[in-house]
Design goal:
It is a single chain. With 206 residues, the chain is mainly alpha-helical. The chain contains 7 helices and no strands. Helix 1 packs across helix 4. The chain starts with a helix and ends with a helix.
Length: 206
Amino acid sequence: MDRKITNQSKTTSYITGVQYFIRANAVLFFLLLLMIINIKCWGAEEYGTLGMIIFPAELLILSLSLFTWFRPAKRKKYENRVFSKNKLIAFLIAITFISVFSLIFIGVNLPFPTTILMLFLVMNGMASLYSIFFHKVIIVLYESIVFNVSGSITSYIFKYIVVTYLGLTYYVQIALSRMLLPVNKVFTFLFLLLLIWQSFILLTYF
């Protein structure tokens, strides 16, 4: 009986790790689209630039997926995903706000919508820097806003904005939450370096 439970636990952990890997790559693919859309504006060889973005990101994703596989962390589930008018209105408002706010990066010669990617990297970079010292605060803050939505338009707007600004850092911290503290800090720092590297590439190759 104990062996059966152990096998089931290993299978569940394996599935959790695979799911993390797939979802992380889906996010990476979407972020790359924000960059590839403006490929005609690139000032360097396209495939080399993509390689410098994808390769280090995949190394980190693979490491975090393995952490999730061997030591899966418990996290809250999303609220009911049933479609509603409030969700749609809030989503459109949040997307508009994020898009307009990202235009501040036009001043550094980044084209839209790659400006959204830059904003995403900068905000998550700030969150990851903070999480080096207070990693649990990011988790609590994210879950208190994203997983406790009242159903109003305002609450959904805050949810979508927080998902954009803190979501990547949150899921990295979730994967690292059951690791030893030194491991958590080292990989959080590596994640911060990755975000800085990606931002540098955007500023250099456009």
